[in-house]
């Protein structure tokens, strides 16, 4: 039975639930279900990542949320920056259908949501920012794939920002990002969660 949140079609008994959650100053309404990551509330790691980006101006940005789940990261940024363009991808089609529903419920129109296994269905190479709360349980190969392939989809000066727990691979993720980008900074730490950021310099 493939009921993991990082699979294409989790085999689950549906049990949708809806909750409100404030992200980047906006009160958002999310519908979740069995078979998606962190279905009862927006997970702490995503909250720390958004807090780390709170002072960043994404007004004219083109953002890609990789492994978007039901949408908290991408939708929070799209809601706050109505003139930004936010693309959201995930391998989990149930999560994507919820992300679409959540975009509509929160009157967010500056998003495009589609299925992609990592960057397989992402052709654009002009993102100014890529964000990810990678699916740790999918394994190191998947997580490092998301981190290492980001560079080819960013403009020069564009950033990759990722959240990982120290005990779930943050040190090796930092090493991988340093290897790929030549730089990696821990821009925020909270309760064992590290927010890692690399800039594409050339």
3D structure, described in words:
The chain is of the alpha/beta class and 202 residues long. It has one domain (17-199): Vaccinia Virus protein VP39 (Rossmann fold, 3-Layer(aba) Sandwich), CATH 3.40.50. The protein has helices at 44-52, 72-80, 93-105, 140-149, 170-181, and strands at 17-23, 26-32, 62-66, 85-90, 111-115, 127-132, 154-165, 185-190, 193-199. It has a seven-stranded mixed sheet with strand order 5-4-3-6-7-9-8, with helices on both faces. The chain has a two-stranded antiparallel sheet with strand order 1-2. A hairpin with a 2-residue loop joins β8 and β9 (193-199). α1 packs parallel to α2 (72-80) and α4 (140-149) runs parallel beside α5 (170-181). The protein is globular, with a radius of gyration of 15 Å. The mean pLDDT is 92.
Characterize this entry briefly.
Helix content is 26%, strand content 30%. The chain has helices spanning 44-52, 72-80, 93-105, 140-149, 170-181, and strands at residues 17-23, 26-32, 62-66, 85-90, 111-115, 127-132, 154-165, 185-190, 193-199. The strands form 2 sheets. A 7-stranded mixed sheet has the order 5-4-3-6-7-9-8, sandwiched between helices. It has a two-stranded antiparallel ribbon with strand order 1-2.
């Amino acid at each position: 039975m493939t009921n993991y949140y990082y699979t294409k079609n989790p085999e689950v008994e549906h049990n949708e639930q809806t909750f409100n959650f404030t992200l980047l100053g906006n009160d958002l309404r999310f519908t979740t279900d069995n078979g998606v990551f962190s279905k009862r509330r927006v997970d702490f790691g995503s909250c720390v990542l958004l807090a780390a980006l709170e002072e960043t101006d994404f007004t004219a940005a083109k953002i890609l949320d990789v492994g978007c789940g039901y949408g908290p990261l991408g939708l929070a940024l799209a809601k706050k920056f109505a003139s930004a363009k936010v693309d959201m991808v995930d391998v989990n089609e149930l999560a994507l259908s919820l992300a679409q529903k959540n975009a509509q419920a929160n009157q967010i129109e500056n998003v495009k949501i589609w299925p992609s296994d990592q960057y397989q269905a992402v052709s654009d190479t002009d993102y100014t920012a890529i964000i990810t709360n990678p699916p740790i349980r999918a394994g190191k190969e998947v997580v490092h794939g998301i981190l290492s392939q980001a560079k080819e989809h960013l403009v020069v000066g564009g950033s990759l920002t990722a959240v990982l727990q120290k005990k779930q691979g943050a040190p090796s993720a930092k090493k991988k990002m340093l290897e790929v980008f030549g730089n990696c900074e821990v821009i925020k730490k909270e309760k064992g969660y590290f927010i890692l950021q690399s800039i594409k310099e050339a």
